[in-house]
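dumping this here before i forget
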Amino acid sequence: MSYKEERDTLAIQITERAKEQIQEMMKIEEDDVHLRFGVQGGGCSGLSYSIGFEYEINDELDHVEEINGIPVVIFRQDIPMIENTVIDFKENLMGGGFSIDNPNAILSCGCGSSFRVPDYDGTPEKC
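structure:
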């Protein structure tokens, strides 16, 4: 049973602005590419977001879902830490970048890419 079958919600959300930016970036990738979003240890708060493109899917370990027209893959064990997270794309005078709003984060670094969740401290590093 997939995550989507167990719950009637998407694991994460991707805004229209983020969707447009991701689709633009996917144009230079090979066919059958997925956006991989997840968590890795590190950062000053203990956990960091990981976002990139993925071609290989492990059916046992990965959750695959189409979110706002984007094929997304998430390592199943990461879902509780990023569930209901919203990925957006924002532009300012310095350029543009993805912003991540994670309602599960109880602590976030000033840079916005490092966080902590209640049940997992991760591996904090010095800033």
